[in-house]
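To whoever is on call:

I kicked off a structure prediction for a single chain this morning and the downstream step that reads the tokens threw a length-mismatch warning. I double-checked the sequence; it's 430 residues and nothing unusual in it as far as I can see. Pasting both halves so you can look.
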Amino acid sequence: MTQWQNWARTVTAYPARVLRPRSVEELREIVRSAADAGTTVRAWGSGHSFTATAATADWALDLSEFRGFTDVDLPRRQVTVKSGTCLQELNNSLHVLGLALANLGDIDTQTIAGAISTGTHGTGARLGGLATQVVGLELVQTSGEILRCSAEVNRETFDAARVSLGALGVISTLTLQCVPRFVLAADERPELLDTVLESIEYEVESNDHFEFFMFPYGRRALVKRNNQTDAATRPLSRAAEFISYELVENRAFGAICRLGRALPAVAQPTGRVIDAVLSPRMYRDWSYRVFATPRRVRMVESEYAIPRAALAGVLAELRALYSRLAEPVMFPVEVRFSAADDVWLSPAYGRETAYVAVHQFDGMPYEKYFHEFEAIVRGADGRPHWGKMHSLGREALADLYPRFRDFTRIRDVVDPDRIFRNVYTDQVLG
């Protein structure tokens, strides 16, 4: 029996069968056979969801061999890719073509379909998540037929399928709207948290991509401002990159977290040390190299999307929470921003959004922390990131998403027998 586990080791599954299609024809035949056998089928991504969105005890689709371009339209700056294509591979290939995605998240190890289906996003008040860059997609239905969706064809299914949790069929290909490749000027520096909070509206509106990390026991935040520039690249040297990302952000930070896990009493003092040693860095590089950074310190995460106007109040409550928690918190809070979009199950649907993500180091208690965090953001009409840990079910989610019932209506049409369901879709969709 095959064991599958996600990156965070929060979910383990034992699928009855693991199938590895290499062509659309093989993928169609697998889905058709699953439906004929009356069993469920779910696609694996790279396992970077903290929820059980990819887990199954029935048939699992490993799409690691189902990747690459199927079409390139340079005049329109559009590419069509197979669903198992990894973001890192996609970004490298787009760069060779002189193209890029307008916005990305902060890791690039996910598959393109997995990232889009769970609502993965970056930061930028005038930009949406990855799903808003999709202009067309193809879904393998239970019959094995291909359902093509776009703004012009099967529009309602398109609006539902861009963030679908895999519940509307297996995505075979995605067509992405790209932009000419571009350079970002990165300015990353520690600043007093209170000063950052006082100037959030200005920072969000005056930078292409703005985010910050709030440390539980410190006075400073790590602020990141990334802006497009016509200047030539001036990347970090290999030595500086190794020191910044590998030595400091992964090895040293991991060691500090392990110390805090072994000796909880030192967690707060070591947290203040992290706050004190933060240092600035400025460089220019191609966008995809700035957006994504290596993350090797294992942790668990919960993230909610709240109305941007509610951010100050939510962060004030969150800062007050740390003095009440019995267990220490080793990881900072990440705050990012997004434009409103029209994707039915996107957490940013219909409103300017601030994303607030909380984390805890692997092996440390997080349940109380995440429960209290969820209570705070729910008071601000927060919507959970589909790939991050949360406790909400169908009834609560139906109240948070204006088009939730439209989504389930489409689901009833394309998958009445629930061939694409799993334990997670049962929780959140019914």
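Update from on-call: the warning came from a stale cache, not from the record. Cleared it. Sanity check on the structure: The chain is about 30% helix and 25% strand.
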